Amino acid sequence: MKLSIVLFDGVTTLDAIGGYEVLSRIPGIEVDFVAATRGIVAADTRRLGLLAFRHFSEVTATDILYVPGGPGAHALEIDEPFLAYLRALDATSTWTVGICNGVGLLAAAGLLKGKLATTNWFYRERLAAHGVTFVAERYHRDGKYVTGAGVSASIDTGLFLAQLIAGDMVAKAIQLGIEYYPAPPFSEESPADAPAAVQEIVRQYEDTVAREQLHLVPPFKGMPIGTP
User: Fold this and answer.
1) Which of 5, 25, 150, 201 sees the fewest Cβ atoms within 10 Å?
2) Which domains does the chain have, with CATH numbers?
3) Which residues are marked as active site?
Protein backbone atom coordinates (compact mmCIF):
# COMPACT_ATOMS: atom_id res chain seq x y z
CA MET A 1 0.00 0.00 0.00
CA LYS A 2 1.41 3.38 -1.02
CA LEU A 3 1.10 6.57 1.04
CA SER A 4 1.86 9.76 -0.92
CA ILE A 5 2.37 12.88 1.21
CA VAL A 6 2.26 16.06 -0.85
CA LEU A 7 4.71 18.78 0.21
CA PHE A 8 4.85 22.45 -0.76
CA ASP A 9 6.78 25.53 0.30
CA GLY A 10 5.33 26.85 3.55
CA VAL A 11 3.87 23.57 4.78
CA THR A 12 3.20 23.20 8.51
CA THR A 13 5.48 20.34 9.50
CA LEU A 14 3.29 18.55 12.04
CA ASP A 15 0.40 18.52 9.56
CA ALA A 16 2.51 16.16 7.47
CA ILE A 17 4.65 14.42 10.07
CA GLY A 18 1.88 13.68 12.57
CA GLY A 19 0.10 11.52 10.04
CA TYR A 20 3.38 10.13 8.74
CA GLU A 21 4.44 8.91 12.19
CA VAL A 22 1.21 6.93 12.44
CA LEU A 23 0.51 5.73 8.91
CA SER A 24 4.12 4.83 8.07
CA ARG A 25 3.93 2.18 10.81
CA ILE A 26 1.11 0.21 9.19
CA PRO A 27 2.63 -3.10 8.07
CA GLY A 28 3.39 -3.11 4.34
CA ILE A 29 3.09 0.66 3.85
CA GLU A 30 5.35 2.42 1.35
CA VAL A 31 5.78 6.17 1.77
CA ASP A 32 6.61 8.85 -0.80
CA PHE A 33 7.10 12.54 -0.08
CA VAL A 34 6.19 14.22 -3.35
CA ALA A 35 6.32 17.83 -4.56
CA ALA A 36 6.33 19.93 -7.71
CA THR A 37 10.12 20.18 -7.34
CA ARG A 38 12.36 17.50 -5.87
CA GLY A 39 14.57 18.55 -3.00
CA ILE A 40 14.30 20.22 0.40
CA VAL A 41 10.93 21.90 0.94
CA ALA A 42 10.96 24.69 3.53
CA ALA A 43 8.36 24.61 6.28
CA ASP A 44 6.38 27.66 7.36
CA THR A 45 8.93 28.60 10.04
CA ARG A 46 11.71 28.65 7.39
CA ARG A 47 13.98 26.85 9.87
CA LEU A 48 13.05 23.29 9.02
CA GLY A 49 13.00 21.44 5.74
CA LEU A 50 11.39 18.21 4.58
CA LEU A 51 12.82 16.21 1.71
CA ALA A 52 10.58 15.66 -1.28
CA PHE A 53 12.36 12.78 -3.00
CA ARG A 54 9.66 12.28 -5.63
CA HIS A 55 8.51 14.68 -8.34
CA PHE A 56 4.83 14.86 -9.28
CA SER A 57 5.64 13.11 -12.55
CA GLU A 58 7.08 10.14 -10.64
CA VAL A 59 3.94 9.46 -8.60
CA THR A 60 0.92 9.00 -10.83
CA ALA A 61 -1.08 6.61 -8.63
CA THR A 62 -1.41 6.00 -4.91
CA ASP A 63 -3.48 4.23 -2.30
CA ILE A 64 -3.49 7.11 0.20
CA LEU A 65 -3.27 10.71 -0.99
CA TYR A 66 -2.29 12.85 2.01
CA VAL A 67 -2.44 16.66 1.82
CA PRO A 68 -1.19 18.71 4.79
CA GLY A 69 -1.79 22.42 5.27
CA GLY A 70 0.20 25.50 6.18
CA PRO A 71 0.44 29.17 5.18
CA GLY A 72 1.89 28.13 1.84
CA ALA A 73 -1.37 26.41 0.95
CA HIS A 74 -3.24 29.68 0.45
CA ALA A 75 -1.53 30.54 -2.84
CA LEU A 76 -2.02 26.98 -4.08
CA GLU A 77 -5.79 27.27 -3.86
CA ILE A 78 -5.66 29.02 -7.25
CA ASP A 79 -2.67 27.12 -8.66
CA GLU A 80 -4.36 25.06 -11.36
CA PRO A 81 -1.42 22.72 -12.14
CA PHE A 82 -1.16 21.87 -8.44
CA LEU A 83 -4.92 21.33 -8.10
CA ALA A 84 -4.96 19.25 -11.28
CA TYR A 85 -2.31 17.00 -9.76
CA LEU A 86 -4.44 16.50 -6.65
CA ARG A 87 -7.42 15.61 -8.83
CA ALA A 88 -5.38 13.15 -10.87
CA LEU A 89 -3.93 11.40 -7.83
CA ASP A 90 -7.29 11.38 -6.07
CA ALA A 91 -8.76 9.55 -9.06
CA THR A 92 -6.45 6.63 -8.22
CA SER A 93 -6.64 6.66 -4.42
CA THR A 94 -8.49 4.41 -2.04
CA TRP A 95 -8.27 7.08 0.65
CA THR A 96 -7.74 10.84 0.38
CA VAL A 97 -6.69 12.70 3.52
CA GLY A 98 -6.65 16.43 4.20
CA ILE A 99 -5.24 18.04 7.34
CA CYS A 100 -5.79 21.60 8.57
CA ASN A 101 -6.16 23.98 5.61
CA GLY A 102 -4.86 21.20 3.39
CA VAL A 103 -8.56 20.35 3.44
CA GLY A 104 -8.99 23.68 1.66
CA LEU A 105 -6.73 22.48 -1.13
CA LEU A 106 -8.89 19.40 -1.62
CA ALA A 107 -11.95 21.64 -1.58
CA ALA A 108 -10.43 24.08 -4.08
CA ALA A 109 -9.70 21.11 -6.35
CA GLY A 110 -13.42 20.32 -6.28
CA LEU A 111 -12.96 17.00 -4.50
CA LEU A 112 -15.12 17.76 -1.46
CA LYS A 113 -18.09 19.48 -3.07
CA GLY A 114 -21.32 18.38 -1.39
CA LYS A 115 -19.41 16.59 1.38
CA LEU A 116 -18.91 17.06 5.09
CA ALA A 117 -15.40 17.90 6.28
CA THR A 118 -13.48 19.34 9.19
CA THR A 119 -10.50 21.69 9.09
CA ASN A 120 -8.71 24.10 11.41
CA TRP A 121 -10.93 26.39 13.45
CA PHE A 122 -10.15 29.67 11.67
CA TYR A 123 -10.53 28.27 8.15
CA ARG A 124 -13.96 26.69 8.50
CA GLU A 125 -15.93 29.55 6.93
CA ARG A 126 -13.95 29.26 3.70
CA LEU A 127 -15.05 25.69 3.04
CA ALA A 128 -18.56 26.88 2.24
CA ALA A 129 -17.23 28.77 -0.79
CA HIS A 130 -16.33 25.40 -2.28
CA GLY A 131 -19.64 23.76 -1.49
CA VAL A 132 -18.34 21.90 1.55
CA THR A 133 -20.18 21.67 4.88
CA PHE A 134 -17.95 22.13 7.92
CA VAL A 135 -18.29 19.79 10.91
CA ALA A 136 -16.67 20.68 14.23
CA GLU A 137 -14.85 17.39 14.79
CA ARG A 138 -11.26 16.38 15.44
CA TYR A 139 -11.45 14.13 12.37
CA HIS A 140 -14.23 13.13 10.01
CA ARG A 141 -14.88 10.58 7.31
CA ASP A 142 -17.14 11.11 4.30
CA GLY A 143 -16.72 8.15 1.99
CA LYS A 144 -13.06 7.79 1.08
CA TYR A 145 -12.30 11.33 2.27
CA VAL A 146 -10.84 11.64 5.77
CA THR A 147 -10.27 15.16 7.02
CA GLY A 148 -8.55 16.43 10.14
CA ALA A 149 -8.65 19.64 12.13
CA GLY A 150 -5.58 21.74 12.85
CA VAL A 151 -1.99 20.50 13.03
CA SER A 152 -1.90 18.07 15.98
CA ALA A 153 -5.17 16.52 14.76
CA SER A 154 -3.02 14.88 12.08
CA ILE A 155 -2.11 12.26 14.70
CA ASP A 156 -5.73 11.54 15.63
CA THR A 157 -6.69 11.43 11.96
CA GLY A 158 -3.84 9.05 11.21
CA LEU A 159 -4.87 6.71 14.02
CA PHE A 160 -8.47 6.75 12.81
CA LEU A 161 -7.38 5.85 9.29
CA ALA A 162 -4.96 3.22 10.57
CA GLN A 163 -7.88 1.61 12.38
CA LEU A 164 -9.95 1.59 9.19
CA ILE A 165 -7.12 0.08 7.17
CA ALA A 166 -5.48 -2.33 9.59
CA GLY A 167 -7.92 -2.84 12.46
CA ASP A 168 -8.09 -2.01 16.14
CA MET A 169 -5.07 -3.97 17.33
CA VAL A 170 -2.66 -2.43 14.84
CA ALA A 171 -3.98 1.08 15.47
CA LYS A 172 -3.79 0.60 19.24
CA ALA A 173 -0.26 -0.76 18.93
CA ILE A 174 0.77 2.30 16.90
CA GLN A 175 -0.83 4.60 19.47
CA LEU A 176 1.16 2.87 22.20
CA GLY A 177 4.29 2.83 20.07
CA ILE A 178 4.25 6.59 19.65
CA GLU A 179 2.90 6.96 23.21
CA TYR A 180 0.06 9.20 22.14
CA TYR A 181 -1.91 9.92 25.30
CA PRO A 182 -2.19 13.72 25.20
CA ALA A 183 -2.70 15.65 28.43
CA PRO A 184 -2.27 19.35 27.58
CA PRO A 185 -1.57 21.76 30.45
CA PHE A 186 -4.62 23.91 29.73
CA SER A 187 -8.26 23.03 30.34
CA GLU A 188 -9.70 24.00 26.95
CA GLU A 189 -11.14 20.97 25.14
CA SER A 190 -11.72 22.62 21.77
CA PRO A 191 -10.85 25.86 19.93
CA ALA A 192 -14.21 27.28 20.97
CA ASP A 193 -13.11 27.08 24.61
CA ALA A 194 -10.01 29.24 24.10
CA PRO A 195 -10.24 32.81 25.43
CA ALA A 196 -11.29 35.38 22.85
CA ALA A 197 -8.01 37.28 23.29
CA VAL A 198 -6.01 34.14 22.52
CA GLN A 199 -8.15 33.41 19.47
CA GLU A 200 -7.46 36.92 18.19
CA ILE A 201 -3.70 36.49 18.64
CA VAL A 202 -3.77 33.32 16.55
CA ARG A 203 -5.96 34.89 13.86
CA GLN A 204 -3.66 37.89 13.56
CA TYR A 205 -0.61 35.66 13.40
CA GLU A 206 -2.09 33.52 10.64
CA ASP A 207 -3.26 36.54 8.65
CA THR A 208 0.02 38.46 8.86
CA VAL A 209 3.17 36.96 10.39
CA ALA A 210 2.67 33.43 9.09
CA ARG A 211 2.34 34.65 5.52
CA GLU A 212 5.11 37.24 5.81
CA GLN A 213 7.50 34.55 7.07
CA LEU A 214 7.18 32.81 3.72
CA HIS A 215 9.29 35.60 2.21
CA LEU A 216 12.23 34.73 4.46
CA VAL A 217 15.02 32.77 2.83
CA PRO A 218 15.63 29.46 4.65
CA PRO A 219 19.25 29.17 5.86
CA PHE A 220 19.51 25.79 4.12
CA LYS A 221 18.34 27.05 0.72
CA GLY A 222 20.57 25.65 -2.01
CA MET A 223 22.44 23.39 0.37
CA PRO A 224 23.32 20.08 -1.28
CA ILE A 225 21.77 17.09 0.40
CA GLY A 226 24.33 15.26 2.51
CA THR A 227 26.67 18.22 2.97
CA PRO A 228 28.67 17.78 6.22
Assistant:
1) 201
2) 2-215 (3.40.50.880)
3) 100
Q: What is the pLDDT along the chain (228 residues), one digit of tens a residue?
A: 999 999 999 999 999 999 999 999 999 999 999 999 999 999 999 999 999 999 999 999 999 999 999 999 999 999 999 999 999 999 999 999 999 999 999 999 999 999 999 999 989 889 999 999 999 999 999 999 999 999 999 999 999 999 999 999 999 999 999 999 999 999 899 999 999 999 999 999 999 999 999 999 999 998 888 766
H/E segment holding residue 67: strand 64-67
Q: Within 13 Å of residue 104, how many CA atoms lie on the same side as its CB?
A: 24
Nearest in space to 125 (alpha carbons), one of 141, 103, 140: 103
CA atoms within 13 A on the CB side of 45: 7
CA-based nearest residue to 178, from 161, 148, 149, 158: 158
**Is the Cα dihedral 32, 174, 97, 161 positive or negative?**
positive
